[in-house]
């Protein structure tokens, strides 16, 4: 059984934890997937590169309103995919090779699961450590729809590597991942149908923002709101979803199915209970504001712990964890009071702070001001008649 000074599980922001002060430590990194984690390989970076391409296509298609005559003759989907992952894949490979080449690092490229207190089984080996950092992230949630496992669905992990651009795409979900990827495929020429359980897209946003975004998406796409999926199947015509909606039954069809119904922490795959680490009912690992779990010598952060699932937040947490591992008597703390976030759909959304509904639920007084782009000179230049800025202030 190999023993280490530190074991890090996950190579997203977890890979940024080691500092020069740890150069004398024996460190292991456990990563069953592609080196670099969600953001680099299947999240923020590739999706935003696709979004930029989609925005260019959308600008060309809408150039007439600026007096510029142009037309979108089509897109080279394989070329787009190659451009994106031709940059990303070498970075992932290079990061792994660099870590594996360091004298004080061992890289385990297999699934790790705790089998006892501070004992992890990785493949056919067992490892122990004085200190553990759990940063294993989250994975797409797949709703328990009869037949869905047999239709060949995609998630954000796989949809961006499709070999061909589908003519029709079904998107299950109305959150930020669904909104962004639906915008990408729709702008590049795919007919997109959204299937959502609620009455609005992006329900985690301020109600006014969510309502405006939903209206825009309903104009661009086939939006099936208030839908419950009763079954899924595939035949020669594609993927079919049967919906219970507005008191009746409907069927929607696509060539491909993207399931973007949220993400769940990977604590269950790690078997954290075996080492004494507690989890919340939703699967998030329990950690305090210094990112310590209830077990001495075990820290956790990122999508495994916080509900925001944002890379920049995980990076901030990684700095806190690195300091706290090195300085157990001088613990730094993380604050989740003001977390900026963005949705790179169309329209784009940027937000920070509490929503109006959150203020109302808390009984806090506030002032609200909304200014529409249409009432400003730059809004006229953009020909933007729907976007706005909303500010909420403590009086």
Layout of secondary structure:
Layout (H helix, E strand, L loop, with lengths): L1 E8 L17 E4 L6 H5 L2 H18 L15 H24 L4 E4 L3 E5 L2 E4 L2 E10 L3 E3 L27 E5 L3 H12 L3 E5 L11 H14 L1 E3 L2 E9 L2 E8 L2 E7 L1 E4 L3 E3 L1 H4 L27 E3 L10 H16 L14 E3 L5 E3 L4 H7 L4 E6 L4 H6 L5 E6 L2
Please outline the major beta sheet.
7 strands, mixed
Beta-strand share of residues? 25-35%
**Which regions contain 5 or more consecutive residues with pLDDT less than 50?**
none
Helix tally equals 9
Describe the structure.
There is one protein chain. This protein is α/β, with parallel strands linked by helices and 395 residues long. It contains nine helices and 20 strands. Strand 9, helix 5 and strand 10 (222-224) form a beta-alpha-beta unit. It starts with a strand and ends with a strand.
Question: What attributes does this structure have?
Answer:
single chain; four-stranded parallel β-sheet; 395 residues; 9 helices; globular; alpha/beta
What does this entry show, briefly?
This protein has 395 residues and is of the alpha/beta class.
